[in-house]
Design goal:
- The chain is α/β, with parallel strands linked by helices.
- It has a single domain, classed as Alpha-Beta Barrel (TIM Barrel).
- It has twelve helices and eight strands.
């Protein structure tokens, strides 16, 4: 099995909320289509950027269904179904598979801090239970647990574990994964600002937040790296202020603020996330002032 159908540019999609705090499914449909129109090849739905911990299983499944219908076969849908509970992760993944998603995002279990053997057993159980490609997600800044490269390399031998979203920013470890993993196992950057160096090491692409706003430019950055063009460094330098601003406070708070500022509001947040503070908003405004926005307006979708 290959991860190729996911493409190089994957967007970790925000979850729109209505004024009353409910999921805004019509806006989710519009956002999914707008992201594909601006260069996205796959969508992670109900991931960290999608505020997954605040969503019920019923809401997640409806989001998977809504985005699947919205983009048809123009893009892959990768369902964020993994959490700290293996049995729940398996159950939700099976339900997502029935809807027709194209893959599963398996986040390193958070809170209970399993040892490496537990991480490996968790992902092997998920892979055995679901006949879909699984994209692992290592993000120790959020989970408090780092999946070591040796564990990832062993998991790369599992036929339907096809790649990893690496957000550790540990380039030595990421390089080891790229060198030692099974043939066909691919590495996507989990941080926009790490895309260039990870691809320079042999990585495949990025699971992006910035692609909500600058999708075509992110796609061109990736193409330029593949081509060996110096344009890649130029694009990276131009987008760096935006990469930084999108994480000036807890993500996706800056992203949702930015979407409102560019005319594609996706509402606010569910607690415990709150609206952006004034200092962070000023940093985001400064980054937007020098950015060229690729996202179509809702009226054009």
């Amino acid at each position: 099995m290959t991860a190729q159908p996911f493409g190089r540019l994957i967007t970790a999609m925000a979850t729109p909320f209505a004024e009353n705090g409910s999921v805004d499914y019509p806006r989710a449909r519009q956002l999914a289509r707008a992201l594909v129109a601006s260069g996205t090849e796959s969508l992670v739905v109900s991931g960290t950027t999608g505020e997954a911990p605040t969503l019920s299983s019923t809401e997640k499944l409806r989001l998977f269904e809504t985005t699947r219908e919205a983009v048809g076969q123009e893009a892959a849908i990768i369902a964020g179904t993994g959490n700290y509970n293996t049995a729940e992760s398996i159950e939700l993944s099976r339900e997502a598979a029935k809807i027709g998603v194209d893959g599963i995002l398996g986040t390193v279990p958070y809170y209970n801090k399993p040892p490496q053997a537990g991480l490996e057993a968790h992902f092997r159980a998920l892979a055995d239970a679901v006949d879909l490609p699984i994209l692992l997600y290592n993000v120790p800044s959020r989970t408090a647990t780092n999946m070591l490269p040796e564990t990832t390399v062993r998991l790369s031998e599992v036929p339907n574990i096809v790649g990893i979203k690496e957000a550790s920013s540990n380039f030595e470890a990421i390089g080891q994964i790229i060198r030692e993993s099974a043939d066909g196992f691919l590495v996507w950057s989990g941080n926009d600002g790490d895309t260039l160096p990870i691809m320079a090491l042999g990585g495949y692409g990025v699971v992006s937040v910035a692609s909500h706003l600058v999708g075509r430019q992110m796609a061109r950055l990736i193409d330029a790296v593949v081509e060996g063009s110096p344009e890649a460094a130029q694009i990276h330098a131009h987008l760096a202020p935006l990469f930084t601003a999108l994480f000036v406070t807890t993500s996706p708070i800056p992203l949702k603020y930015a979407l409102r500022q560019v005319g594609f509001s996706c509402g606010g947040h569910r607690l415990p996330l709150v609206d952006i503070d004034a200092k962070s908003a000023a940093i985001m405004d400064a980054a937007l002032a020098i950015a060229q926005i690729d996202l179509p307006s809702p009226a054009d979708i």
